[in-house]
Structures are given as structure tokens and as C-alpha cells.
Design goal:
Elements: H1 2-15, E1 19-22, E2 25-28, H2 33-43, H3 51-69, E3 74-75, H4 92-95, E4 98-103, E5 111-116, E6 121-122, E7 124-127, E8 132-134, E9 139-140, E10 150-155, E11 159-164, E12 182-186, E13 205-207, H5 211-217, E14 236-243, E15 246-253, E16 259-266, H6 267-271, E17 279-284, E18 289-297, E19 300-307, E20 322-326, E21 335-336, E22 339-344, E23 363-373, E24 376-384, E25 392-397
Parallel strand pairs: 3-22, 17-21
Antiparallel strand pairs: 1-2, 4-5, 5-7, 6-9, 7-8, 10-11, 11-12, 12-13, 14-15, 15-16, 16-17, 18-19, 19-20, 20-22, 23-24, 24-25
Helix pairs in contact: 1-2, 1-3
Length: 398
């Protein structure tokens, strides 16, 4: 029997498992057919039953695979942090508050609107090759001097969308009505420039005033409207995407058992203050994570997931950031498991010291798709805590 065990050891080594984790589950993949054939040939010995030994060694092999998979599937940026000329024309705290980005659908150079979770204004930028330029035109938001706490941005052919977090204040859990706005801002389809009047004020802007009523009627959201962020259960919009007639809101919280909500709404009805046909999907993002941004792509919706709002337990590290791809569907119970593309490896990104603005930390919160090809995405990632977003470029194959 020792000969049989030796054969099994050799056979399992022949397989040379390749693996990775997908949404907390082990995925074994890319096993060449030739390796399976050699494995079966090694196990074909007359008159001997190998079931017990097969079980034993497959368990051993699986443990080795799991150890490998835990560190597999991470991806470092291929470019960045991008330069931004003189930087955003705000104070240093606002410059480190980039929380979202939405790019117009015009040809290059692409113009994009930034979401800032500090201050009462925003800016558009022009993307270049390894850098971006800040447009000079100021864009003050008509909110009577209140901070929107903008956490998400999206665009379609003619409009930018800018969403406040709709969250209670993080420190003391106070209500924050200024964050309860979802703005639709018109832009010139030829240039991506925000439409303004003779005085430089935004001329085409509409607020989805009925969104609070929608939240109050949606199971899975309405129960958490009064919850605090630090518990991970408070409502907190951090992602947004537009695909066809639907506008999708991604929530950092509430997050439960590795799932975070995405709410699909009829965008035309929403801004006409008509019934917006809300549809909630609980998306699997991994324990401790919430949705940090969304972006529409040809194959569905790209999801940036990262640490949720709940404060991590003492002695534990917060979860990593991930990219996954959701096709927009869900099961009968309203749950969906997207295709995990990669974890983000940020270990090699150095914080920068600069005149008037030093990087504080790397917290990816905004994504823009630079190119969308079959089985390949080139993604620009902007971070809260990095001066002017500290844009990083990721090249993702799937």
C-alpha cells in the first residue's frame, strides 16, 4: 500500500493546483487537461482501492491551495499617482476629499466631474496621458452654503449626477439634511463642460427631491435611516452608476453578513418626482466591506468594494479593496454574487509630500473606466486622503 500512497503523492503534485478566492469561496481553475490525464493514469492500479488515501491527500492538497489562494489575485497599479498641475483650487482638506468621479461620454480628451465630500463647490477636470488638468470655471453648488458631503458621481449622455451621502454625521450621529440631495447637472455633449449662465452659475440642475420618500418605502433601507455609521448599519451612499434607463446607488452601509445594497431606480421618473420603480439587490462584497463606487461597463457594472462603515475590532486590520463585475441580475431572494476580478495591492504606493498639500492616506473611493475592451478594463482610481485624488491606473484582465 505504501507504493499506492507514493503514487498518490506524485499524482497530486502533477496537478499543481492554481487557485484564487472569489467572494470568500475557493475557485480552482486553469487545470490543463493533460495534467488530469496523467493524474488518472497514475491512479489506475489494478486490485487496489485508493478512496481513503485519495480523500486524505486531496484534503492536504486543498489546504495547500487555500494557503496559496489567500495571497493570489491581487493587482498593483500600473501608473500613478497622476500629476494635476497646480492642483484643485481649494484648501488642503478639500483637496484631499475626492470621493467620486464621473466622465462625460464625449471623445478624448475626456472631461470629468469630481465629487468632493468637503466644501460647497466642485470642479471638472480634463484627463490626459498620466495627468489631468483642472478647469478654471468654478462650479458652486446651489445649496445655500451647505456642504453636500458628495460621495458619488455618475454620467450619461448629457448629464452628470452628483449624490450626497444621505448619511448621519459620523462623529455624533447627528442628522445631516444637507447631504440629502441627488443632483442632475446638464453638460454640453460635445465638450463635457457643465452648462452655465452668463454669470457662471450652473444653469441646468435638478434635485431628486423625492429620494427620501423612496428610501422610506424600500425594505432593506428604511429600517436603517436612523442608524449610526459607526455600527455599519447607517444608510451611506458611496457609489453611483447609470446604465440605460436605470440609475444605480451603491451603499457602503447598511452592510450585513458580507452583503451591501444596490438600489436601481428609473432615472427619468426619479427626477420628474414620479414613482421610480425601486429595485434592491443585496450584492456579495465580502465580510466587513461595503460598496465604495460603481461604474457602468459593457459587461454590466464595475464594483469597487472596500472597508465598510463599521469600526474594525481592536487588533484586526480592515478589509482590502476589490474590483468585481456585476451583470445586474439577482436571485429570487434579491441576492447576487458578482464576478471577483481582483484585490487592489496598494502596498507599493508611496504617500507624497507637496507644497501646501501632503497625502494623508490611501482610501480608494472613485473609479473611472479609461478603456473597456473584451475581457480587459483600464481603470482610474481616485482616493480620499490623497491630494487631488492621487489617481492610480489599474489594468485588469478577466
Amino acid at each position: 500500500m505504501s507504493n499506492a500512497v507514493d503514487r498518490l503523492k506524485m499524482a497530486t503534485s502533477i496537478l499543481n493546483f492554481e487557485a484564487r478566492r472569489e467572494n470568500g469561496h475557493l475557485a480552482i481553475y486553469k487545470l490543463p487537461i493533460g495534467r488530469w490525464g496523467r493524474f488518472l493514469h497514475m491512479m489506475r492500479v489494478e486490485g487496489v482501492t485508493y478512496r481513503r488515501h485519495v480523500q486524505k491527500w486531496l484534503i492536504v492538497a486543498a489546504c495547500a491551495v487555500i494557503g496559496h489562494a489567500a495571497s493570489a489575485g491581487s493587482l498593483a497599479p500600473v501608473g500613478g499617482p497622476w500629476q494635476s498641475g497646480g492642483g484643485l483650487p481649494f484648501d488642503k482638506d478639500t483637496r484631499k476629499s475626492v470621493s467620486g468621479i464621473a466622465c462625460a461620454l464625449q471623445p478624448a480628451p475626456r472631461r470629468c466631474l469630481l465629487a468632493l465630500d468637503e466644501g460647497i463647490a466642485t470642479r471638472t477636470i480634463l484627463l490626459g496621458d498620466g495627468s489631468y488638468a483642472v478647469d478654471e470655471k468654478p462650479l458652486d453648488l446651489p445649496l445655500d452654503g451647505a456642504e453636500l458631503d458628495a460621495e458619488a458621481a455618475a454620467a450619461d449622455n448629457g448629464y452628470y449626477y452628483l449624490a450626497g451621502s444621505h448619511a448621519r454625521k459620523r462623529k455624533h450621529c447627528d442628522e445631516n439634511p444637507a447631504s440629502h440631495h441627488l443632483l442632475r447637472i446638464g453638460y454640453d455633449p460635445a465638450s463635457g463642460a457643465v452648462l452655465t449662465d452668463a454669470n457662471g452659475k450652473i444653469s441646468d440642475i435638478t434635485d431628486a427631491t423625492g429620494l427620501d420618500k423612496v428610501f422610506a418605502a424600500v425594505s432593506g433601507v428604511k429600517e436603517h435611516l436612523d442608524d449610526c455609521l459607526k455600527d455599519g448599519q447607517g444608510v451611506d451612499i458611496e457609489g453611483m452608476a447609470v446604465m440605460g434607463p436605470k440609475l444605480y446607488l451603491g451603499f457602503r452601509g447598511p452592510a450585513n453578513a458580507g452583503y451591501a445594497p444596490i438600489l436601481a431606480l428609473d432615472k427619468k421618473a426619479l427626477f420628474a418626482n414620479e414613482p421610480a420603480s425601486p429595485e434592491l439587490t443585496n450584492l456579495e462584497v465580502g465580510k466587513g466591506r461595503g460598496i465604495r463606487d460603481l461604474a457602468a461597463v459593457k459587461d454590466g457594472i464595475l464594483v469597487l468594494a472596500g472597508p465598510g462603515d463599521a469600526e474594525p475590532s481592536a487588533g484586526t486590520s480592515p478589509p482590502t479593496w476589490t474590483f468585481s463585475l456585476w451583470d445586474g441580475s439577482h436571485d429570487d431572494g434579491g441576492k447576487a454574487t458578482p464576478k471577483l476580478l481582483t484585490e487592489l495591492d496598494l502596498s507599493g504606493v508611496a504617500l507624497r509630500d507637496g507644497a501646501g498639500c501632503d497625502d494623508k492616506e490611501i482610501k480608494p473611493e472613485g473609479i473611472a473606466v479609461l478603456s473597456d475592451e473584451p475581457h480587459h478594463l483600464k481603470i482610474l482610481v481616485l482616493s480620499d486622503g490623497m491630494c487631488d485624488g492621487g489617481p492610480l491606473v489599474f489594468s485588469v484582465d478577466f
